[in-house]
Structure formats: structure tokens, C-alpha cells
């Protein structure tokens, strides 16, 4: 490594491979890197760990067409320019960087295979400035609808119904609060007394429906657990 730059010697040392074109997995964690150097020559690379470095630019990753898993946590990244070329990227960890807004993730919309994204890690206390917005998760999912896992939580598949339901409840509560605040203000002369009533009733209906769906889902989960316990008991008995 020369002045925080990735060199061929570093790639060979860390991978144990003589030909860098043969490297499939590479761990460059905590190497003091500030320049990706010749990493794009690792054309067969599938898994790359660049966490805990000093990286700010990612454009030199553009040649890694086979890359599927990328860890960029704990750097100083503000711009994801270059990642849009990684057509096979499935998982990327961006926790602990300097991404300030949802627009900083715009490059990821070109990645059809991206299923897992982490921009906040509560266990390691790593985050990004955009996470200060309490609605960032909804914004990310609206931008990247193909995601299955966000910040370590499953979005699609088992558990996704609960997340979606909670989001609907949250939105309904926010709208109801807005309506209530409007009702307490002095209405304009041309606004009738019952102007806001239909909206309030509509939101109450949505909340009621969401509550019923949540209860049904929880009941289904309980039944599944009970069945699993019965199978476990039978299996345990048969083994004895």
C-alpha cells in the first residue's frame, strides 16, 4: 500500500492469490485506504470488504461487474457514483458514512439485483446523516422497491406484512393529527362546521381495519408457533 492507495502488491498479500484477476473474495478492512487504486483489475471479485477506511470516492469500483457483496461501512462517503455500474450487486453496507439525503442513494436505483441495504447499524452505532429523518426508511423503500432487507430487518417475505401494516398505521395517525390541529384552528367563513368530519371518520376506519389485520396476523403466528411446538414434542417423543 502506497499513501493509502490499493496496489497490486496489497491485493496479492491480502488475498493470497498471485494473479489478481483470480481473486473472488477480498478483505481490506481497516487498511487506512483513501484511494481504491487498481482494485478494478480484480475482474472476478464477488465479495469485497472495504470497511473502516478513509474512502470518499467509489468510481474505481465501476469495473467490478461480478461483485455481489460490498461492505463500505465506516468510511467518509457522501457520493455513491460508480456503484450504478455494479449490475450484479446484491448486498451493500453503507452504515457509518456521510450520506446526507435520500438523493445520495439515487445511484442504487439502477441495480435490479440489489436486495439488501444497510445505512444504519444500531448494534455497532453506525449511521448516516440522512437517518436523522424519522421517515428515511419509507423514503428508501419507495426509491428501492425491490429491497428485501433494510438495516438488517426483512422487508419482503416473512415479517414484511407487519412492517407494511405498521407503516400504514403511522401514516394514518399523522394524517389524523393534522386534521385535529386544523379543527382546533379558526375555520374560514366559507368552511362548514362538519367540513373535516368525513376525513376523520375515514382515518378512524383505516385504523380499525389495520388493527383487525394486525390481530389476525398475530393470531396466525400464534397458531403456527403452537403447531411447531406440537411437532417438536412428537419428534422428541419418537426419539426417546
Spatial separation of the terminal alpha carbons: 60 Å
Using DSSP, what is the number of strands? 7
Could you say what the CATH architecture of the largest domain is? Answer: Alpha-Beta Horseshoe
- Binned strand content: 5-15%
**What's the mean pLDDT score?**
81
Order of strands in the sheet with most strands: 1-2-3-4-5-6-7
Largest sheet: 7 strands, mixed
Low-pLDDT residue intervals, each spanning 5 or more residues: 185-202
- CATH topology of the largest domain: the name is Leucine-rich repeat, LRR (right-handed beta-alpha superhelix)
The helical percent reads 25-40%
Number of helices: 4
> What sequence of helices (H) and strands (E) makes up the elements?
HEEEEEHEEHH
Assembly level: single chain
* Whole-number count of domains: 2
Cα-atom Rg, whole angstroms?
25 Å
Structure summarized in a few sentences:
This protein is α/β, with parallel strands linked by helices and 240 residues long.
Topology (SSEs and partners):
Blueprint lengths: L7 H8 L9 E3 L19 E3 L19 E3 L19 E3 L22 E3 L17 H8 L5 E2 L2 E2 L5 H24 L13 H43 L1
Parallel strand pairs: 1-2, 2-3, 3-4, 4-5, 5-6
Antiparallel strand pairs: 6-7
Annotation keywords:
seven-stranded mixed beta sheet; Leucine-rich repeat, LRR (right-handed beta-alpha superhelix); globular; 35% helix
Please tell me about this protein's structure.
The protein has four helices and seven strands. With 240 residues, it is of the alpha/beta class. It has a seven-stranded mixed β-sheet. Helix 2 (136-143) links the parallel strand 5 (116-118) and strand 6. The longest helix is centred in the last third of the chain and has 43 residues, at 197-239. It is globular.
